[in-house]
Give the backbone structure.
Amino acid sequence: MSRPPLPRPFGPVGIIDIGSNSVRFVAFGGNPRVPSALFNEKIMAALGKGIANNGALEEKAVEETLVALARFRLLGKEMGLKKVHTVATAAVRDASNGPEFLKRVAALGLKPRLLAGSEEAELAGLGVISAIPRANGIVADLGGGSLELIGVARGGAGSGVSLPLGVLRLGANPDATLLAEQIGAALGKGKLKDAARGNGLYLVGGSFRSLAMLDLKLSGHPLAIVHQHRFAPERIGELRTILGDTPIDELKQRSGVSRGRLPTLGPAVALLETLVDLLGPRKIVVSAFGLREGLLYRDLDLATKAQDPLLAAALDVGEQLGRFGDHGAALDQWIAPLFPDDSPRQARLRLAACLLADIAWNAHPDFRAERAVDMAVHGNWVGIDAHGRALLGRALCAAFGGDGGFSKKLGALLREGESERAGAWGRAIRLAQRLSGGTENLLRKSRVELGLRKITLTISPRFRALYAEAIDRRLRQLGAAMGRETEVRFG
């Protein structure tokens, strides 16, 4: 597998997202393909709460929002942001006093842009594609004032629809029949109505992500990370029952979801049940990326969009934390002959492990494996699910000498034989790093081969001095892990 292109200089860039429920400011920097949130702050202003009552933004919410926006503008200026995108969505779009509100925002020195419903849907779709490039089905972006639905397939977003079905408009107990009629009428007889059938339904928005966090915490999942969390269809009804029967204080304590977000989960789960019934998806997947990331992704050139988001991020982190510069791709090429039967998916994760093979060198020796596993499984990655994180963590645990200490809970996420395979990746990485001292040039003076009964390490005669007892020990450990004898040659 080829090495991802080197990241180009990017940012910092700011996005101020004036939503119907929350107003958020995020400063992004780092790798353009997978930008990192350098700063992230929001307020739950509930701008759209007054729309259902009198069709206007409530003055109290407006004032609270303007105070926050003034702060965000000052922060952005001090951060030296190259550009600040200020966008407003459904609440401002639908409010009778929306134009007046935008003038007041502009008076703060910002340049607000009102997104049409179709563009809001497009950006949500592009955000999902940015994080899950092979997404195929329908993206559902649930906000405070609206629900956007858009088809995604083959790395692109189609045409979408925007419906006034945000959590602030639905009420605590929305009528399922009425919801189905409204969504069905909006979808009509076009292609969008069948886009998720047998494919995926991808969920975007704070209420859906909070619902996922509730599901993860209540089910005791070993990785409470919402990105690419899959809802089991039968679990949705169980969550509706739990939300109806459990006091808010208890839910907050058990889930960690904020008190301000919890009241939106009832309408969110009711809407999700309706969507699943109508659209017939094969899988229901949560995306951490949405409108804001879609806005950045849309501006990228085609070559950057084509990068694998996991590998691009792993390369970036590996370069920042490595000792002697990036050599992850060379490391993967060196160990690849030992794993000829790795599937493309396994080979991709193996490359990610190699790109991250030097991330914990500066930790205390007794805790390097622990540090590496923590970064692998809890890193701010996209393009990877919980199962992939566990594989990555298992490989890096072995790479840093922590074979016996890998979490049993994380290990339970792996399938039969996968722990051994990922552990062998790690042992091969460990051998290569010790042999070469973590440098690419010396690594290229040797190679490994896999035979039916034997693993052979061949070192160039001119570099015979690389061989030492420590190398022999790690080679034998690798052989034991793979059920092979070992041999060293100089030639």
